[in-house]
Amino acid sequence: MAEAHQAVAFQFTITPEGIDLQLSHQALNQIFLSGVRSWKKRVSRMRNRVIKGVYPASPSSWLFVVIAILATMYMRSDPSMGLIKMIQQHLPLSLHVSLSTQGQTMLSALVFSTLLWLSLILALRFCLKLLLSYHQWMFEQHGRVSNTTKVWVTLLRLLSSRKPLLYSYQTSLPHLPVPPIKDTVSRYLTSARPLLTDPEFERMTKLAGQFEANLGNRLQRYLRLKALWATNYVSDWWEEYIYLRGRGPIMVNSNYYGMSRVPGTVIPLCAAQCERMFNTTRTPGVETDVLQHWQDSEFVAVYHRGRFFRLWVYLAGRLLSPRELEHQIQRILDDPSPPQPGEEKLGALTAGERVPWFQMRERHFSSGINKRSLDCIERAAFFVTLDDEEQGMRGEDPAGNLDRYAKSLLHGKCYDRWFDKSFSIVIYKNGKSGLNAEHSWADAPTVAHLWEYTLATDAFQLGYTEDGHCKGDVDRSLPPPQRLAWDIPSEVQAQASSSLVVAQALADDVDCHVFPFRDFGKGRIKKLRVSPDAFIQIGLQLAYFRDRGGFCLTYEASMTRLFREGRTETVRSCSNESSAFVRALETKEAVDQCRHLFRLASERHQNLYRMAMTGAGIDRHLFCLYVVSKYLGVDSPFLKEVLSEPWRLSTSQTPVQQMELFDLKNHPDFISLGGGFGPVADDGYGVSYIIVGEDMINFHVSSKHSCSETDSHRFGVQISKALQDIMNLLADPKSQTTSKCQQAQPQSKKQL
Fold first, then answer.
1. Residue 488: CB partners within 8 Å, gap ≥ 6?
2. N or C: which terminal CB in the chain sees fewer CB atoms within 10 Å?
3. 510-517 and 568-572 as β-strands: parallel, antiparallel, unpaired?
4. DSSP character at residue 512
5. Which candidate in 175, 364, 439, 621 is catalytic?
6. Which pLDDT score is estimated for 36?
7. Does the predicted model carry a pTM greater than 0.85?
């Protein structure tokens, strides 16, 4: 095979005269250059560690401190107040013998200067941590900034004047606080009130009171102890028990997708989730999976027509150009070789139950050729699928094709994605693209940030030639992509088939509906002095009430990355205020009353979101208390009931984070469609939305065909109507000709 010859650096033969070495200078040169690149990366990492380690100071500031101390000493003054002489007295005896008195003084001054410099860095970090612990700015009304916040912004900008690296703020971020148990229980009861009848609420109040008075305080003490010891009291347990311990398929149930485009604050966020973006794989276990992360990788794994390839992205220590990558991918597309026995549907093992995948891995992928090929996939920077289908908004049925596009990214054929990889990029036959991401290592905003940057860089910086090729030249000596070899026994093939049956049933049950809402966007919502997210969330409550005839426990994901190693918190969007507004609207109460109730619901939602972001949420605290109770072997009827409540409406906003990369108004064809996920409850909906520019909101709705009470397309219609009705309600009072909420008919799109 061609790749076998390329892999040989030298050959030797035994002759009567001795061993005859036939050195391949080109191969040895590649090895040398690859080593040079590795050492350069080591030096770069070391340099970055030093820079971020001394932030907000700089390495050069050490020299400034040294010069200042020496200059002061030269002027016959002791800035150390006797400490330099004390250091000099405690120098090793060997230095006293080998150095002059002046040399000992200079060395002691250098030691003192270094210690002073390090002390100043610690003091600056402490001050920065105190500043970043201030969150009151989030609760101030728009346009009304307090003097305290103004001073805070000024001080924060002074301490952050140097351009930070990705991880510069990590050690300065505050730790996530443990809320008082009384506050959490009180907030939970408030959130549960609109979902319970009077007798049910009375029973739950009694359970909560008993928990708070007895077991709760005991569990809280353990949790506070963990918060003192650990960097974040939630994240490790959240990763393990919510994600890695699930034994069911991660496809649809956990993984999510992101689509491609259609034909500033000064506050630092925790960057810990970025560390495992590349070279990361989730590996199966019996009771729990494990996230494996490697330091670096020089290749990606590629799947095409049932074959796996290793595609090197570095040559001679340099990253391949886009044109060279295109050339290498074309080689894969042109490769006529058929899949090896069992190779085509091998990826189904990652889509099915976790324990059978673990068993097959232990028996047949722990040594030999299968281990080497599996290592190539798992150690790759990421996974790429060259899909032989066409997807996107195309043809005579763009709306239906958009739904199929979403389903394809969510699960594909259930064997043509490697669902264990941190993320898999999918490139379709017609050039459309997207990705599927594993959820345990990071949350959607981290992957969305990467994907937005990728799409914008591809379109506005790299570009293409007139004939559609990537710009640049090709080094024709590039070795071809390496075809991975397998020896897959019949037992593995049988299990892959069984896993595929499980995964296919799960995939067939998912009902995906993606639609752009173009009647208005955040521009018109903001003119009403309403938070766009609150507007949409209240609209979802109205849509669900109309769709199912009641309210449900609603999950909205909020980030907690203002804290070190923070991930997410839950905003319980179904509140007393939002339910009161929905009932008033549906019972046709007076317009002014409906507007008043909407304003209350909007303010309540914004406050709930801010509390979640600033560590005063409900659900992560209750979750950790539950974990502690399990470790102690005690049962809590209150926690058991709370943790078993179904989230029938699970929602998430995909943030647009890199608006500065291109102008949305002048380049509307490059707008991202966002991404989505499967429903959390069997009888519920999953709703993801992205607020795009000023005039569009894109929705991703999912549910299950097996539930007769849900329908993604029907719910999509209800969402659109709910948003239109709320906008009509909040429009200029002069345009209203009726005193009843529901008597105002939706305006035409032209009017909107």
1. 340, 341, 342, 343, 346, 364, 370
2. N
3. unpaired
4. E
5. 439
6. 73
7. yes
Domain positions in the chain are: 2-53, 181-246+518-743, 256-509
Give the whole-angstrom CA distance, residue 537 versus residue 488.
49
> 460-469 — which CB contacts under 8 Å span 24+ positions?
460/661, 460/662, 460/670, 462/322, 469/323, 469/326
Catalytic: 439?
Answer: yes
Longest CA pairwise span in the chain (Å): 108
Which CATH homologous superfamily contains domain 256-509?
A: Choline/Carnitine o-acyltransferase, domain 2 (3.30.559.70)
List the beta bridge partners of residue 697.
Answer: 517, 691
Residue 381 φ then ψ, to 5°: -60, -45
Distance, CA of 685 to CA of 676 (rounded, Å): 11
Separation CA 470–CA 327 (nearest Å): 9
Residue with tokens 């090197």: 312
> Residue 730: which of 519, 529, 517, 576 has the closest Cα?
529
pLDDT score of 58: 86
Give the single-character DSSP code of 373: H
CATH 3.30.559.10 assigned to domain 181-246+518-743? The reply is yes
CA angle 389, 395, 398 (to 5 degrees): 95
Q: Which pLDDT score, from 0 to 100, does residue 2 have?
A: 35
* Nearest residue to 546 via CA among 700, 702, 723: 723
DSSP 228-244: HHSS-TTHHHIIIIIII
3-state SS, 241-259, equals HHHHCCCCCCCCCCCEEEE
Query: 294: closest CA among 481, 421, 430?
Result: 421
Q: Write down the pLDDT at residue 658.
A: 63
pLDDT under 70: residue ranges of the chain: 1-31, 33-35, 37-38, 261-265, 395, 657-671, 732-752
From the list 180, 190, 151, 91, the residue with the least C-alpha distance to 607 is 190
What pLDDT, on a 0 to 100 scale, did the predictor assign at position 740?
46
Distance CA 116, CA 105 (A): 16
Q: Which amino acid is at 663?
A: D
Tabulate helix, strand, coil % of the chain (nearest 5).
50, 15, 35
